[in-house]
Design goal:
With 342 residues, this protein is an alpha/beta fold. It is built from seven helices and 17 strands. Belongs to the EXORDIUM family.
Length: 342
């Protein structure tokens, strides 16, 4: 779950021992901008060094069956270009996209997620596909959703039969438009994942919700493409988003965060740190705010900037570029990403 923290989770960068990557630097420059922190909360601690993190496996399943089927629910009104951008990111995860995506790529970023296994030794699948889509343009459950009514949105999609009941391979991904408010959105979360209750949906299904913060709280949930309002005009400017849409580009980083955690902890009984499964610290939480080597103390880490000044750290298919946070590596016991320069 992507929440806010009073401390950045980037202490691990000093201990990352990843092999040097062959980075695609053509037409791009490297830089490590310092930005103010997002709005703060004490809801979690994000510790980033191996001697402080106790990430453990709790014997539950991971999404190891291939492919992982993404069932997309577009709640509210979305343009086709917005849908295409998000789907291009999701399809960039699979190995088939690696051939057309120069390094560092989204597919290489997911390799860290695929290192996680279940008790049989089966790894998280490396292949994700958009299996089906459902558009709820009538806002069937209103313009404000609670955590429970988010599940009702899934129930509507399943009962209307656009979606199958996919216990083994499925992720039900609810994306709310910019005019939809959601319980705790902007105040405590930018996205979350859990599993549906049989009493609500009829089945137990892993799902994630992410909201478009472009008009509600970009300085919180579209960071680092927007900076907190308290900075006024006196601080460093926000970074330019790689696809020109602060809300969508920020949203994609949250989608990446939630997909990584949902794949490694779908029923909240697999991979997490801490003793409380109702508030687990997961593999994305441990690296919140870290996008490249040298991050920490307000620095996001070494990332790239193209000739138009747009910031990114991974390449996708169709020439897309994205900025996504690093993920905790079980092999390195540190945050890692394909754009590592260590």
């Amino acid at each position: 779950m992507l929440t806010f923290s009073a401390t950045s989770s980037v202490a691990a960068t000093a201990s990352v021992a990843a092999k040097k990557q062959t980075l695609n630097t053509q037409g791009a420059e490297f830089f490590n901008p310092k930005l103010p922190p997002r709005t703060l909360s004490s809801s979690k601690r994000f510790e980033g060094s191996s001697n402080l993190v106790d990430l453990r496996y709790h014997m539950g399943p991971v999404l190891s069956s291939s492919p992982i089927n993404i069932y997309l629910i577009w709640y509210g009104r979305w343009s086709e270009s917005q849908k295409l951008l998000i789907k291009d990111f999701i399809t960039s995860i699979s190995p088939s996209a690696a051939a057309s995506s120069p390094s560092p790529s989204v597919s290489e970023w997911w390799k860290t997620v695929s290192l996680y296994t279940d008790q049989t030794g089966a790894n998280v699948s490396r292949t994700l596909v958009v299996a089906k889509e459902h558009s709820d343009t009538r806002y069937s459950h209103g313009y404000h959703l609670t955590r429970l009514s988010v599940q009702q949105v899934i129930a509507t999609a399943v009962k209307a039969a656009p979606f199958p009941v996919d216990h083994r391979n499925g992720i039900y991904l609810i994306l709310t438009a910019h005019d939809v408010t959601v319980q705790d959105f902007c105040r405590a979360v930018c996205g979350f994942h859990y599993f549906t209750f049989p009493s609500m949906v009829g089945y137990t299904l892993p799902y994630a919700w992410i909201g478009n913060s472009g008009k509600q709280c970009p300085e919180v949930c579209a960071y680092p493409f927007a900076v907190p309002g308290y900075m006024g005009g006196g601080g460093p400017g926000a970074l330019l988003p790689p696809n020109g849409d602060v809300g969508l580009d920020g949203m994609i980083s949250v989608i990446a965060h939630e997909l990584a955690e949902l794949s490694t902890n779908p029923l909240v009984n697999a991979w997490y740190a801490g003793e409380d499964p109702t508030a687990p610290t997961e593999i994305g939480d441990l690296c919140e705010g870290l996008y490249g080597t040298g991050g920490g103390g307000g620095y996001i880490g070494q990332v790239m900037r193209d000739v138009k000044g747009r910031t990114f750290n991974v390449n996708g298919n169709k020439g897309r570029k994205f900025l996504v946070q690093w993920i905790w590596s079980p092999a390195l016991k540190a945050c890692a990403g394909p754009n590592s320069m260590d």
